[in-house]
Each structure stands twice: as C-alpha cells, then as structure tokens.
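Entry 0007
Protein: Ribosomal RNA large subunit methyltransferase M
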Amino acid sequence: MEELLFYCRAGFEKDLAGELAAEAAREGLAVYPRFVEGTAFVRLLSADGDPAPLRDAFSLEERIFARQRLPALHPLEGLSREDRVSPVVERIRASGWAFEAIWHETPDTNKGKELHRLGKALERPLASALRKAGALRGQGEAQGCRLHCFWTAGDRVQLGLAAPESSSDRPGGILRLKAPRAAPSRSALKLEEAWHQFLTPEEREQRLAEGMTAVDLGAAPGGWTWQLVRHGLHVQAVDNGPMDADLMAGGQVEHIREDAFTWMPPRPVHWLVCDIVDRPGRVADRIGDWLEAGWAREAIFNLKLPMKKRFETVRDCLDRLEQRLGAQTVRLRARQLYHDREEITVHARPARGAAD
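Output (structure tokens):
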C-alpha cells in the first residue's frame, strides 16, 4: 500500500478529512488528507513517505463520515482509451497483490454514475489479464481479499485492496434498501439501516424481539415507530403532531401528545429512538437524560448537523455524552448512513461488561 482511500457522502469530504486529522493528532501519526469538495472520497497519505503506520490505523468501524476504507496505491492517471488494462496489470504485478474478486466502483456522485459503463466494459478483459498474471485467484486462495478499481475519470483509476476484516463488504460501502410501501415515511429506512450498521444479525434477533418496549421521541408521522412495530415491539410515540392512522390501528402504539424534551416515561423501556429536527447539542443532552436515568437500555438517535464545523459539532456532542455517562458504562458509535442527509446516526448501548 502507498496510502489509504476513503469513500464518503459528496459534500462531506472536509468533515472526513477533519476526522482523520484529529485521530492522527491523537495517535501521533504524520499524515495529511487530500480531497476535492464534492468528489465523495478522501485520500490519506503519509507525510514522510512511509505508509507502514497507516496499515492498521483509522479503522472503518470507528469512522463517522467514511463508508469505505481501502489500503491503496497512488492513482494511475493518463490512461489510454486504446489500452486501460495493461497499466493496471503492470501496477498490480509490481505490487504483489493477490485477490479473489474485482470490484469496479465510482464515486457516489452524478459524474461518477456516468463512469459505470466503463467499469462494466473492463470487467472481463481485466479479470482475464489479472488471472493470467497470477493476481486473480480462486476462492480461498487469497484470504478473501478484493481488488477495488475506483474510477474517477475515464483516464484515471485508483487501485485498492480490501481485506474482509477491515473494509465494508458492500459496493461503495452502501447498504441499499428498498423503501417499504407501508411505512408512513421514507425516514423508516434510516432506522433499518442503523440496525444493520450497529447490530449483528444475532443481536437484531435477540434485541428486537416481540414483546419488547420502546419510546419514539418526535415520532410523527411514524416512520421509526413503524419499524419498531414491524419487529413486534410495543411503542410509546411521543409527539404533538398526528400519527399515521393505519399505524395506530394496529394496537401496538400509544400516541402521547407531549413535548419530547420534557416527557418522562412511567417505566423503563428496552429501546429509545429519536429523529427530532433540533439543535444537535439539545438532542444529545436529552438522550443523556434518558440514559443517565436508566429510562432506556439502548438508544438510536440522529443528530442534525450545522452548515459549518460539522465534525467539531459531532465530536463535541459525543464527548459530552461520554463524559456524562462514562465510557465504561455506555458505548457510543456514530456513522453518517447512506439514508441520512445532513445528519449522523448514533447508537448507544451498554458497554461490554456493564451490568444489565
């Protein structure tokens, strides 16, 4: 590897770069990010030219604004239309990389979408050439590694090598979900994606079980409540606004017309969810009230981001929550999900070893 390559949402390159720079400062790593706003990716390079310290740093699991993390080679530029395959094969041969699959990807931008046909056209000839070169191997022969060909222009590609344990196994790092017709709003997709992001399949089965209880703060019209009900939970939906009539007809939802920032539950619940449009600090403080009081065991909530200093705002909210609740008691994970927009989603759960 010569650098690290990260994918992100277009427009959030600066926030991802700030996040990476902050971690580098904490760990004493001499690195610098390179990006162009609106391109949906950030490159991270070693300041002294030695990429070795990057290999095990900046894990994807701990990232907020990154969708994918790839150890990568420097970009190949100026590729000829007549032969884009040979320079890629030569670079791979020199790197010594071996892999079991090839993914052609582009940035998640309108410009990137125009390059999809190029990747399709190169799939077979590149795979054939790399198989002959000994780099593309059979299943189980290269530890599950994948080659990512990240096309940012017709004559420019960056090659990354993904290991299963340190990268996303989704193309583009994106979980694409089908919008459920029965849901009261498309916001339902955000909670579904959050469960896939933060919980394993086994955890979803255990902790989203029939008969459990939940509170949805700022619930109307009921997109997140609908997801909870679909898993068999009984929900108290707190909002002065109207709830979806079909959702209320099922009998699993109690609509509480109260202010989400002042209402207190009569008894603790398994889950607290919250997608309120308000200042992120105010929302984080309210979630802190709930977790500190023990009103909910686990929470998923969104923080709407300001126009400027978005990473700094997020870090401040999370730091305040950790200081208030204690990192040994509650574990926080945050991610800007694909179905998020100008926001991030946070999961709060009991830390490993914390008492039930």
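Curator remark: The chain has ten helices and 15 strands. The chain has a mean pLDDT of 96.
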